[in-house]
From TrEMBL:
Stretches the record annotates as Disordered: 52-77
SUPFAM superfamilies: cAMP-binding domain-like, Dimerization-anchoring domain of cAMP-dependent PK regulatory subunit
Source species taxonomy: Eukaryota, Metazoa, Ecdysozoa, Arthropoda, Hexapoda
Any one GO molecular function term: protein kinase A catalytic subunit binding
Protein name as it appears in the record: cAMP-dependent protein kinase type II regulatory subunit
Keywords, sorted A to Z: cAMP, cAMP-binding, Nucleotide-binding, Phosphoprotein, Repeat, Transferase
Residue ranges of domain Cyclic nucleotide-binding in the record: 123-238, 241-361
The keyword DNA damage belongs to this UniProt entry's keyword annotation: no
Length: 372
């Protein structure tokens, strides 16, 4: 081989691009094994290729934060069913790392209002203080009037919005699907997944929004928000009760969860205490025990994918039982009362069915005890 021929070896652009995408995904995900991850990554990439027949079905059972349930409207089911890997970490994300974050100076009053507005933004929960300050600096105020279209379905994503005030209606294919009342956020999906806008958002009243541009959103929020949604996706998909939630609501639920770990034997909930939230079991098992005369009696064991601590939230009563970590350390995802009410409020009826079961068991147990 001459030195001439070696000079002619060129790295094709496609190869460069694929490797870059893979490297970004790898660095963000930080998986334990590069080979296993590469197999998973490239298998997904291949399945998502537009030229592959029947892509709709082939991506169905893959890990995809925004894959849709069959009962959701067609627009979401078709145009948005894409691999998270392919969409969220394109080389464009790399471009977004250029330059400094925009700073919009604010009066004390503006900053105070902004801080108040972002207090309950679940997407910001995993941010560190420094990142949170960057977010506050980068947000700018936008006043809206009744009838204003803030977002139109199908457009490219420009900004992401946090609501300070106003009522906003959300439409998919002209069908009204959601309303925001003076609180919440919208416009994050297109920026998070690099997809066209999933819905139209129109102001019903005068209102005030805080906006953040796409680059800043991707630079500061993409990694943390995306990683969190992905981390909890499998867990939330495995909880039967949550099947009643729409995919979009499950994503919001993922934003709200906080991981907590308990050593073997540690008490997680104490019977009689006031409730501050509920728990989903990510790893390990717990023992549910009730005070009976002088002793504590185990009444149930729960494992991965199951939940507890919901009863007090639904009944607004003290904790009905104590719960302990058993058989090694336990990893839990905690959902605080406020987020529970916001996201799971309408599931209360489903949860209430449990109360009937608990009461039935309690009666059975009491009867057994008196027969002894
Ligand atoms: P976006 O950037 O795609 C439209 O622009 C925004 O509407 C979207 O981000 C969300 O922030 C917001 N499904 C999809 N997007 C929704 C939904 C929603 N609700 C609000 N947005 N669903 C309603 C869930 C109660 C699911 C409908 C199938
Ligand atoms: P919580 O918020 O009252 C204790 O805190 C949690 O233990 C409770 O929510 C349930 O999630 C969970 N009866 C009452 N609470 C139970 C029970 C239970 N099992 C789990 N928890 N029974 C056992 C049913 C298998 C009835 C016992 C007689």
């Amino acid at each position: 081989m001459s030195s001439d021929s070696s000079r002619r070896i060129q790295v094709p652009d496609e190869l460069k691009e694929v490797l870059l995408q893979f490297s970004i995904a790898f660095l963000v995900e930080q998986p334990p094994d590069v080979i296993d991850y590469a197999v998973e990554y490239f298998t997904k990439l291949q399945a998502d290729r537009p030229s592959v027949l029947n892509t709709d079905q082939s991506t169905d059972d893959q890990v995809s934060v925004n894959s849709q349930d069959a009962d959701e409207p067609p627009v979401m089911a078709t145009s948005r069913r894409k691999s998270v890997f392919a969409e969220a970490y394109d080389p464009e994300a790399d471009d977004d790392d250029d330059g400094a974050t925009a700073v919009f100076p604010k009066t004390d009053d503006q900053r105070a209002r902004l801080v108040e507005s972002v207090k309950n933004v679940l997407l910001f929960r995993s941010l560190e203080k420094e990142q949170m300050n960057q977010v506050l600096d980068a947000m700018f105020e936008r006043k809206v009037q009744p009838g204003d279209y803030i977002i139109r379905q199908g457009d490219d994503g420009d900004n992401f919005y946090v609501i300070e005030s106003g009522i906003y209606k959300v439409y998919i294919n002209d069908k009204h699907i959601n309303t925001y009342n003076h609180t919440g956020l919208f416009g994050e999906l297109a920026l998070l997944y690099n997809m066209p806008r999933a819905a139209t958002v129109q102001a019903e009243t005068n209102g005030l929004l805080w906006a953040m541009d796409r680059q800043t959103f991707r630079r500061i929020l993409l990694k943390s928000a995306f990683r969190k949604r992905k981390m909890y996706e499998e867990l939330l998909n495995s909880v039967p009760m949550l099947k009643a939630l729409q995919n979009y609501e499950r994503m919001n639920l993922a934003d709200a969860l906080v991981s907590k770990s308990y050593d073997n034997g540690a008490r997680i909930i104490k019977q009689g205490d006031a409730a501050d939230g509920m728990y989903f079991i990510e790893e390990g098992t717990v023992s549910v025990r009730m005070d009976q005369e002088d002793a504590e009696v185990e009444i149930s064991q729960l494992g991965k994918g199951q939940y507890f601590g919901e009863l007090a939230l639904v009944t607004h009563r003290p904790r009905a039982a104590s719960v302990y970590a058993t058989g090694g350390p336990v990893k839990l995802a905690f959902l605080d009362t406020e987020a529970f009410e916001r996201i799971m409020g309408f599931l209360t009826d489903v949860l209430k069915r449990n109360i009937v079961i608990y009461e039935q068991m309690f009666t059975d147990m009491a009867r057994r005890n008196t027969n002894l």
